[in-house]
Amino acid sequence: MRLLTHNTMRNNSEKAKGKGWPLRITAVEVRVDDADEIGSEPEKEIAFVKGILGMLDWPTLVQGASQMGLTTLPQVLTEEMSQDTEFLRALYHVLMNVHLVRGMLTCPDTGREFPVTDGIVDFSMEEEECENVRYYH
Amino acid sequence: TKNLEEEGSESADRPFLILSFQYDYVISKFNIYNDDGECIKDDISEVSTLDKNSKRTFASILSRCALIRSVIELWGSGTTTDSCANSVKTLSMNEHGIKLLSRHMVDTTSWKITVHTLGSKYNREEQNEMRAKFSFLNFPGKIQMKDPLHEYIIIREIELDFKGSPIYPRRGIHKDIIPEHDKLPPLAVYFGRILGGRRDWRGGRLEKYNLKSRTYLGPTSMDSELSLIMTNLGKVRKGSFCFDPFVGTGSILLTCGLRGGYCFGTDIDLRVLRGRSQNENVFCNFEQYKLERPELVRSDNALYDRHYRCHKPIYDAIICDPPYGIRAGARKSGSKLDQPRAVPEEHRHDHIAQTKTYAVSDVMADLLDVAARTLVMGGRLVYIIPSMTDFDVNTDLPRHECLNLLHICYQPLQTELGRRTVTMEKVKEYNPELKDKYIESVWINGTDAAEKCERIRERLLEVAKLKPDYEEKAAMRKKRRQETKEAKKKAKYANQAKSDST
């Protein structure tokens, strides 16, 4: 699971009353890809980050990153930073190259837990959680 | 060149399309320029289509095409091999022709002439006779049959029917030549130089991406050619954010990755996501082609907004093959029971949640609604839907107010069964207040249309049962299955005994 994915996830259950995010990360195993090893394309990365910047929730990202062991992100995202290409490249690295391989995601409102194994988040719903959730806004 | 297209044959579409350009325009298209404006070489190589500064060449266009077999620079044509050779000779003697040919008269190049006879087999002697007519071209360099630098081609076109078979085949069932057919003149003969085609994609043969060589496959893996076409329909390019909500073995998502996209896939089946082992899973397939690891989540598309924030659209393309219950059961979360019992806390982690049948009408309604909600404006949804002969594209396809129906491509599979690749584009912003209204209007004719898909398995079985040797074949299959089962059991006990004794 990457931090970008984590940023979009929530536990939108009735009990959570429409909140259910950010999910708290308990990291057991984290893997950080070495940008030099996997190869990078700066222009492509910057374009991608610029594209998704509008939908990121910054506090969620900062919190999530710190729960994964990364504490270098600034607390606030300024206009200046979002125009700085070096910053954007570093942001890309945080969003896309840091993987939660094993751990747990916990709903902040209900305590419901979602395990993560081999980098795959398991959002399986129990039977009683599904009924009447189809049209939940 | 004579415009042979106008010698109208109503019967069938010709397999060749002849395009005419101004000479200079043509020449400028067949060269690749570097940033300094210097012409590098007259050769086909992959050019990034995102690079606005490089000239759009046929090479970059061809590197995307999955269905174009080849593009040929036409040097001459005629209604017989001799008249074709004459037209090439004429070209070689005029100003433009001399310029054109001089680029190929270099000693160090390797070349060959391919003879392509549509729908008929000509032996080597006969082919060489045809090649001999063009010997006046006198190419220097050496003849090289495998991967020469320049490949020229002689095409002998005859009349084909709608299935692509010759109307007057040259040979009979026993491979003997039919003299009356053999005497018939061809429709046209062409000579030209091959500029490129499917063979050149990503610097190698298209076949390299065939399923045969993949590490991890399943019964529902999408063939690579169709998934390439789907990515074209979805306009997937470098940097596209791609989503497959029914990712399975990841075959479609892999192609999005090959096109340079960012890949996100979800599936309700954790086992197919995890794969068979550490060495046989979706991640391994991506590694095999040196692609970045895709993002995979086990989630139910019927509950998309239960798991993800949908405040802003993010995907450029959603490309998928939804489950219709024909080859793999379609499941969604939830119990078959009306009043499911809550799982006690201590059993939570071990409990494998039940899933229940996911009706096709719901699969499609949810897919279209998720697409409408999460695609960026102009983003594309491309999906496959199976259909039998009673499928009516005007009334049987699901619709959504926010999505415009762009293309429907039909591919026949069997006499009774075919599949359609449907492309939709987001044209209107999604209003969450209208969700119920959107879902209700998905099926124009009510869910009958969806049931057509659902019943396909049944109907195929009905059709198969009508065939004369059905009972016999079914019995044989049953016998074989039992034999395989017995053999597996024996092998298992043999291994057991071995490990017990050691």
Q: How does the major sheet of chain B shape up? A: 7 strands, mixed
Q: Give the spatial strand order of the biggest sheet of chain B.
A: 10-9-8-11-14-16-15
State which percent range the strand residues of chain A make up.
15-25%
Overall geometry of chain B comes to globular
End-to-end separation of chain B in angstroms reads 80 Å
Number of strands of chain B: 16
Number of helices of chain A: 6
Number of strands of chain A: 4
Structure described in brief:
The complex is a heterodimer of chains A (137) and B (502). By secondary structure, chain A is an alpha+beta fold. Chain A has helices at residues 3-8, 35-38, 42-53, 58-67, 85-96, 127-130; strands at residues 24-32, 98-106, 113-117, 120-122.
Structural features, described:
The complex is a heterodimer of chains A (137) and B (502). Chain A starts with a helix and ends in a 7-residue tail after the last helix. Chain A has a four-stranded antiparallel β-sheet, with helices on one face. In chain A, a hairpin with a 6-residue loop joins strand 2 (98-106) and strand 3 (113-117). Chain A is of the alpha+beta class and 137 residues long. In chain A, helix 3 (42-53) crosses helix 5 (85-96). Chain A is built from six helices and four strands. Chain A is globular and about 45 Å long. The radius of gyration of chain B is 28 Å and the shape is globular. Chain B has helices spanning 23-29, 58-62, 81-93, 95-102, 124-132, 179-183, 224-233, 251-258, 270-274, 282-288, 304-307, 360-374, 435-440, 448-454, 456-465, 470-501; strands at residues 32-33, 39-41, 70-78, 110-117, 142-143, 150-157, 188-197, 241-244, 262-267, 295-298, 315-320, 331-333, 355-357, 375-388, 403-412, 417-426. In chain B, the strands form four sheets. Chain B has a seven-stranded mixed β-sheet with strand order 10-9-8-11-14-16-15. The model of chain B is unreliable at 1-12, 30-56 and 200-205 (pLDDT under 50). Chain B is built from 16 helices and 16 strands. With 502 residues, chain B is α/β, with parallel strands linked by helices. The chains are: A alpha+beta (137), B alpha/beta (502). Chains A and B meet through helix 1, helix 3, strand 3, strand 4 and helix 6 of A and helix 9, strand 10, helix 11 and helix 13 of B. Strand 4 (120-122) of chain A pairs parallel with strand 10 (295-298) of chain B.
